[in-house]
Amino acid sequence: MTLYRQLIIAVLGVLVLLYFGNFFVSFNNSKSLVAQQMQTHAQDAATSLAMSMTQATEGKDIATLNTMLNAVSDSGYYKRIYFVDMNGDILLEREFPVLIDGVPQWFVNLMELPDYDGSAEVASGWVILGKLVVVSHPGQAYRSLWEALLQHLVWFSLIGGGACVAAFFAVRILLVPLRAVESQANSICEQHFVQQAKLPKTRELRVVVEAMNRLSARLEGLFHSQSELISDLRYQSHTDIVTGLSNRTDFDARLNAFTSDETGSHCGALMIFALHDLSRINDIAGRRGGNDVLQALGQKLNQGIQSYDRALLARRQGQEFAVFLPDIEQEEAESLAASIMLNVAGVSWQHQEQLPLAVTMGFTYTTDIKNGPELLSEADMALHSIDLDGGETWRKFSDLGLASIPTVSHSVLDGKEFVAQAISERAIELHFQKTVSVPDKQIIAYEVYSRFRTPDDYELSASTVIPMVQRFGCSTALDKLALETLAETSLPGDQILSVNLCPESISDASFCNWLPDFLSSNRDVASRLVIEIPEHALKVAEENIRSLADILARFNSGLAIDHFGMESSAFGYLASMPLRYLKVHRSFVKNIHLSKDNQFYIKALAQLAQMREIQIVVEGVETEAEWLVLSSMNINAAQGFFLGYPEALQKGS
Is the pTM of this model over 0.90? Predict the structure, then answer.
């Protein structure tokens, strides 16, 4: 029961007690007064009538006596009037039945007034002739008491009703600060650290509000300091301090995670850039001058790949930088490599004439990535085979005569035609991969993947086709097709269904207008649907993602962040964005049993997410060793080949 109701009930209880107490006292006083009045009235009537009867008695005028008695008794105030002589014989008597009009019987039974009588002697001179007795009629007394009770009840009801109304508004006004404290406490639970600017005038309530404001400020500071600590840990352990790019640890982890991607086969290119004579540069310009050159080279490389969201760029060691471009066609990759080399050729420094800068590149491309270290080895072999004295600046691994000829080439496909045909013919197949709870391995969700088939029956994963889809501006059409196909599919169990959306769809007005209609028409799917958004999309479309979250909330659908941890920015959005879970990128899971840094990162992240009541899901669990370490951490769920492979969903009728 709410405090508001308790206070109202308490006020009403006090009023009722006051009413009955007042009624009891008033009733006793009224009853005593009425009894006294009845006694006095009967005695006065008897005395007056006795004096009037003296003369008639002396003349023994019985007719006159009867007339006098009739006149008095007809007034209705008396129950009985009788005259007795000295011998006790009744000479005259008038008796009337007790009729009480307008008074309920229960009230009469409750009052139960006794008979009140008055008597007076009737004399002739000094001779007493007899005694006249007058007994009061109780009807008038009952009626007077009943009317007094009704009047008392009416007035008390009016006053009590007014008091209740006044108490109602007074209590509401009194509880306004408490309701604000309740709202503030709920906001704090949701990590919205609001503070009340207006303090109540009541001292006790003001103290409570001030304490809540201090608590909110302290928790906000604690939350942000913890999130900044985790972000700083991520930045320091995975970022090169000189250039601000990823370091070797981060690059290798991401590359290895990509090459073990569970969503299908991938193509890609890897380049290793080397700045020659770094030691001489340091000798001439000092360590700071050498760092300036490395920063300039890193900026040029970053500019060259800015249009490729999934590209990885890192300073792997000393004078070497590495670039990995996933899911890119070979011709485009080679053209981009040539463009980057032209761009980095423009890097110069203050001692350019004394020591011209020289940058070389080793390049390798594969249509079916299987092994990250192998790609690095191929690019490194190409890099070290360059004849710098002969004017060569970059070389492809395939030119060394050591690379195997790929059996399948994505470039043989007419990408634009293939994408357009796949979408128009709705030629996608859905697969699902289970997500299990930790540590009991109960299925709690399925992640839905799209698959495509080429004309020669070669299966392509969405991650292979999506770069082409994005390049040709078909992201929105593909996402609509995937959701519509999901609605037509016989879904397994009643678990959550997580679906990835392209960042382009989130910012597309037509998609955001279409989505509510789709969710409204497919309530069963909507209640189970969780849309996963890659973390990097928050950098460019945070407001659009918040609007998407509002749409999903209207239909009981959810929002989650995919590939979490790949961005080095702070996690401030965790405090305000309604998220079902964070899905930690597989690079943190790969060989986690060998990485104390990644173990610490996930543990700290789990603690932060617990404060926000967000679940933590890890992806890419491929070995029992990884599972055993993860199952001892405070995470909620996991998925990966060790727990289950993607399987096909069957379309319903």
Answer: no
